[in-house]
Amino acid sequence: MNNQLIGDLLFGPAQPLSGSKLDDDTLLKLACEEFPEKEFCIVRRWMLIDVILADDEESLIRSSGLRPVLIYAQAMITKAGTKAEAIQGVLSGFQLTFEDCFFETQDMLYILAGRGSRKFASKPSVSALADLCGSGLWSTYESRSTNSSA
Questions:
Q1: Are 105 and 115 in contact (CB under 8 A)?
Q2: Which listed site, 22, 38, 120, 148, has its alpha carbon 20 to 30 Å from 31?
C-alpha cells in the first residue's frame, strides 16, 4: 500500500513550476553572499506538496506560524558546496515562508532551482514518503495533539 501511495505522489500528475534558472555554482555564490547567517541548500528535481489535513491538524500547524506545505527534493547542494543525490530524496519541514524560488522552514532555507512541480497530497501519502526519507515530520505535531487532548 505504501509503495502505491508513494508512486502516485511522485509520479502522478502535478502542476509544473520553475525555480531559478541559474547554475549551481552561481546560485551557491549568490546565496552565500545574500544569506550568510542562514542554513540553506539548493534543491533540484523538487516538488511542493500541499498536505491535505483534517481541520484540527491544519489548525495545529498554522498555530505554530507554519503552513501545511512541504518540499520533496531528489538532489541538493549544501551551503558548504557539497552535492548530494539523495537515494530516497529529502523531505523538508512545514513551510514558514515561500516567495519566488525561496522556500523557508523553521530550520532551513531551500532555494528551488530548475524545474519542479506542485501537487496536493493526503496525509497517508506524505507519511509514507516521510517514512521512506527517514523524516520525523509528524512527531512534533502528533505529540502536541496528544498533550492538548489529555
A1: no
A2: 120
